[in-house]
Amino acid sequence: MSTFDPRLTPARPDLAAAHLRGKVEAARFVEGVTKRVVSASAPLRRRPEPDAPLDTEALHGERVTIYETNDEGWSWGQLERDGYVGWLPASELGDEGPPPTHRVSALRTLVFRSPDIKQPPLASLSLGSRVFVARIKGEFAVSEAGGFIPARHLAPLAEHESDFVAVAERFIGTPYLWGGRSSLGLDCSGLVQVALQAAGIECPRDSDMQAAFGSAVPFSGDTATLRRGDLVCWKRHIGIVSAPGRLLHANAFHMAVADEPLDEAIERIRGSGLEVTTVRRPGSGWPGQARP
Question: Which residues share a beta bridge with 88?
Answer without folding.
Answer: 75
